[in-house]
Amino acid sequence: MVKLQCRKCNFQFDKPKIPRRCPYCGKSNTILPYKTAQNYIDEVET
Ligand SMILES: [Zn+2]
User: Quick check: is 44 in a domain?
Assistant: First the structure.
């Protein structure tokens, strides 16, 4: 399972793979792997 989050509505959910549409708001191409605060810190530092 992958932790995912919709960039549009910030809805978070788990799926085996990334769906085309957000199951909450129905927008397409808004789903990204969910990033924790630590992920953001790692990105800033690299
Ligand atoms: Zn959404």
Answer: no
Range of the domain at 11: 2-39
Cα angle for residues 35, 37, 29 (degrees, 5° grid): 25
How many angstroms separate the alpha carbon of residue 20 from the centre of ligand 1?
11
- 35 Cα: distance to centroid of ligand 1 (angstroms): 15
Q: What is the pTM of this model?
A: 0.69
**How many structural domains does the chain have?**
1
Structure confidence by residue, pLDDT tens digits, 1-46: 889 999 999 999 999 999 999 999 999 999 999 877 777 788 887 6
